[in-house]
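Sample intake sheet
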Amino acid sequence: MKTIKILFAFIIISAISTTLYSQDAQEIIKKVQNNYKDLNDAKAEFSMTEKFSGGKSTSSSGTIMIQKENKYKIKTKNYTLVTDGITTWSYSPSKKQVVIDNYKDDGSTFSPNKFLFNYPENFYSDYVGEEKVNKKDCYVLKLTPRNKGNIKSAKIWVDQTEYIIRKITINTSESTKTYTLKSITLNPGLSSSEFKFTPPEGVEVIDLR
């Protein structure tokens, strides 16, 4: 009888905890969305690490810019990725090569805008704890894609004071990428020309459109 009572209590506590965590996640998302609803563009410095399934890892740093709708630019020493929401340019200075393609949004591919503006529509979310990012207290939310695709799962770290996203981890079958954001500027008034790319003279252009 005592064992049954303990088991019953455990089930009740687990159910309550799950409900509270779910409510916490939704409340956090609501505050982030309210914070971003009037956001037109943003700019930040970032560091990125990528761990591949085979054990190899790489790291880089650079600048990220975003603008509604579906415009973003990620620039590091080794590559530049730009899209205006219609066309995507992927430039590798070391290869002296630019790959041009149509912008694709299948609901599960990575784009910064998706995690900042539209992640409630693309992912289920669960509160999983609290951690510090660059000395900032953050809530940690686990994201599970609503539709099957390249992204298997993700996590975001939300600043407990400012309710902005300070860190993102994306898990795919090939690797795990972690972006840590710093020097975040909201509504800096970015020019739309930032989200166009003109291939440098002398580089190979591969047009897949």
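Comment: Confidence is low (pLDDT under 50) at residues 1-23. The longest helix spans residues 2-36.
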